[in-house]
Amino acid sequence: MKIHNFSAGPSILAPEVFQEAAQAVVNFQDTGLSLLEMSHRSKEFDAVLNEAISLVNELLELPDGFKAIFVSGGASTQFALAPMNLLPQNGKAAYINTGTWADKAIKEAKAFGNIDVVASSKEDNYTHIPKNYSVPSDAAFFHITSNNTVFGTQFRNMPETSVPLVVDMSSDIFSYKVDMEKIGLIYAGAQKNMGPAGTTLIVVREDLLGKVDRHIPSMFDYRIHIKKNSAYNTPPVFPIYVSMLNLRWVKKNGGIKAMEARSIARSEMIYSEVDRNPLFRGTTAVEDRSRMNATFVLNEKYQSLENDFLEVCKNAGISGIKGHRSVGGFRASMYNAMELDSVQVLVDVMKDFEERKG
Length: 358
Ligand SMILES: *Cc1c(COP(=O)(O)O)cnc(C)c1O
Prior knowledge:
358 residues; alpha/beta; Aspartate Aminotransferase, domain 2; Aspartate Aminotransferase, domain 1; three-stranded antiparallel sheet; 9 helices; binds pyridoxal-5'-phosphate
């Protein structure tokens, strides 16, 4: 039976990416060596790194002045490293608290300067993205989490501000075109939309670096990773390779435009069923609904059926649909590689459940 993996992360990748990745572990490009035993300074791996970086440049249409690097440590490390690299000691940075990950980013940033939380939806359990707030013009940057993986909300557009945006795009990178004019820094853990766990993509406007006086340890210093083309030390070779394969797949399948169209089609399909089906309801403000993570619950009257629904999902090959403990109910995570057919399977199960239980 085909398994439809709606897990929030690590997430699905295209079957051909898994195949090629498996082949590279056994015998990389007919070298007789596994990629796992190969020098990270070999010409073969150097080509992988260069292709990965050039695909990032091409797919995101990075203007001059932006640099892309692959580092390790996950997006959570960047909660600290972004302000460490960008926020002067007595400087100020603006943050918006739209979910668990944003909250963590704020906590980490406080060690590096004055953090102005311009708005928060925490008191509403993050069911919406705050709209009316102003960002101080003397802030070094404005940090946002573009897609709130846990709660299922997403910024429909990057906010307009007079200061550069620092964006945690871990769960929606490569799923729509970003206006790079607004961006100072993007970071994204690979394991949702880009590849397997183990590497994090950073895209940074280089002229924003070097403005802080604090000592930055080499491994935490973006400038060093840029200068060393992501190979200052041994980089996460395999996660970078698989990310590169996936970026090739994105390109081959029409690039960001096509990924966006796919995400619109998937999310419209699931949300229209959530809205139509009397057993279910969405958990977030309609205008802020995420195209990547659809959160929904059973209506009051049917709440005792939660385990039944999880069971029928399981029997239909639907995996990873249980909601995060802080929201409850269900979460359908639909990252770039997910086919519309898988969403159709979930919708059919919801319809069938209504017929039998409604
Ligand atoms: C998953 C996630 C993170 C954490 O990523 P790690 O790589 O596990 O540190 C951060 N931000 C967002 C938006 C996420 O979805």
